[in-house]
Amino acid sequence: MRAKVERAGLAAAILIDSAGTHGYHVGEAPDQRSQQAARQRGYDLSTQRARQVTRADFERFDLVLAADQRNLAALRQLCPPGMQHKLALMLAPLGPNQEVPDPYYGGASGFDRVLDLLEAACDGWLARLQQAEIQP
């Protein structure tokens, strides 16, 4: 998403971050297979480090996206009642209730499939943001 936002000239207007609902890998870099698949598409994930979602994230961000229903439920538990409208599934632009599959236990092709889905969803989210007249 960050690369798409930069190409659209909206990097000054849109803050992007990533966090998990659990703290299992806090401080760690993304899975090497994920980094490899991303690198083949021109994305550098090497400086990213995992962090856990905090209550402050719901104040800081206008939109908080979850990979799947399990993570969406965890976000709903943490999110203050007046901010629940900020929550959505990452793949919502592709259709209702679509979830990002977990490629961890599969082969390299699973990481490519996830990137295909995420790129398409990011195009959809960016179009929605542009329709909302986000200005840099």
Automatic annotation (TrEMBL):
Catalytic residues (UniProt): 102 (proton donor)
UniProt-annotated stretches for the region Disordered: 25-46
Pfam families linked: LMWPc (PF01451)
Principal EC category: hydrolase
EC numbers on record: 3.1.3.48
Domain Phosphotyrosine protein phosphatase I: 1-128
Gene3D superfamilies recorded: 3.40.50.2300
Signal peptide range in chain numbering: none
Gene Ontology MF, one: protein tyrosine phosphatase activity
Alphabetical keyword list: Hydrolase, Protein phosphatase
Record carries keyword Chaperone: no
Superkingdom, natural source: Bacteria
Protein family (similarity comment): Belongs to the low molecular weight phosphotyrosine protein phosphatase family.
Name of the protein this chain belongs to: protein-tyrosine-phosphatase
Native source organism of the sequence: Pseudogulbenkiania ferrooxidans 2002
